[in-house]
């Protein structure tokens, strides 16, 4: 009879042990705050190339932790990110993740203006002073829109931007363009990324702040 690990905590623990082993010398690129993040990204994707592609800028993790500790809203460019984020852990810090791309008013305005819903959703979210963290895993237009609003001084600089849109049109370019702003920023250079990567980065930060039972 075949035996296999059945306890969720044990599966995750063993997965992280394997990741640590297979990172090899690359593990030395990361410190005690960044290593849990890249391990969780690799755990989500089973792709070790992320260790070469991920970039942390302007004390991003500590800035994100401070915003989370103080309780904040987190704008996500997809409902997949919202659904994937641990609501239980976020509630411990009085934080809330939300998305506006499916909002009927956002959809109506986007159609009237001939722009993406991601642009309109970002416009509305970025003007909310309680929204301190932005997770962008899908739409380069959302990242570009946030960049332009910061440059025009229409909003305060965010506490953390996770800019990891995936794709072939504007994804790599939008991530690169955002780097000039001096904002606490975590990105995946190049075409790779996605909503699941955005969630894994958030969890890589959150689980440094909150110890889950059994882990």
TrEMBL record:
GO MF, one annotated term: precorrin-8X methylmutase activity
Biological pathway: Cofactor biosynthesis; adenosylcobalamin biosynthesis
Pfam families: CbiC
Keyword Membrane assigned: no
Domain Cobalamin biosynthesis precorrin-8X methylmutase CobH/CbiC span(s) in chain numbering: 10-207
PANTHER family per UniProt: COBALT-PRECORRIN-8 METHYLMUTASE (PTHR43588:SF1)
Protein name from the UniProt record: Cobalamin biosynthesis precorrin-8X methylmutase CobH/CbiC domain-containing protein
Organism listed in the record: Fusobacterium ulcerans 12-1B
